[in-house]
Amino acid sequence: MRMSMIEAIRQRRSVRSYTGEALSREHAGRIADCIAGLQAPFGAKVRILPVHASHGESGPVKLGTYGWIGGARDYLLLIYREGPLAGEGAACLFEQVVLYCTGLGLGTCWLGGSFSRKDFGRQVELAPDEKLRIVSPVGYASEKKRFVETWIVGAERNHRSRKPFGANFFHGNFSTPLTEEAAGIYALPLEMVRLAPSANNSQSWRVTLDGSTLHFYRTFSYGFSDMDLGIALCHFGETCRETGIAGHFEVVDAPRERNAGYAVSWIGAERG
Hints:
Blueprint: H1 5-11, H2 25-36, E1 46-52, E2 61-63, E3 67-69, E4 74-81, H3 86-103, E5 107-108, E6 130-139, H4 147-156, H5 165-168, E7 169-171, H6 180-183, H7 187-194, E8 205-210, E9 213-219, H8 225-243, E10 247-250, E11 260-268
Parallel strand pairs: 7-8
Antiparallel strand pairs: 1-4, 2-3, 4-6, 5-6, 8-9, 9-11, 10-11
């Protein structure tokens, strides 16, 4: 039985230690089919490229500034062209694939930080206007964790907690915290937003509820706020889809809020 997106959101964890096995033909094919069947929201020009890294089995590959990944043989690369809501749309699409992989029982790990073409230069060609923003290993998690992963996980343990529901979600404007009771049918979708991973656990999204409309904002405090918001939008939209909540994302003339930039709104059916 296929895992629901809500279950995948709850179960997804960052995996840094892998068995060294390449993806099976079945899993590689299913991931390719998933990618082919998806379309990035907001008109974003995105491609998700699966690559097999023949780096040998003697040690980990160091990617960017995030940390060490050991034993991974397969990766997913997020590549897109800049444009309005391009980062959010790209991250939203990438998270859908990550959650699909979680449902297959595979490990993944969002890797940001600094990337250059030489990281996967022999396998990836980027157009001049394309950006390689995110890489994720994808594969079979190793039960044996290396010392460096134990250290990283220990350092991050205090960052896994999430802010209370009313810290990032508001009623009308940022001065009135939103309660789960007042959120009504949107309580579960917003809870899935609350559980979304973010760079350094910054949780840099903000949401206001106004009737049946929710306005999504990004803060300016962190360089990956567009990626963070894209993941949050994926969690919200997929949860609404699975629970039968009708609506769509649309850019509207939303109220301005202090220390945050408006991104997009969810226009829902009127509630009785």
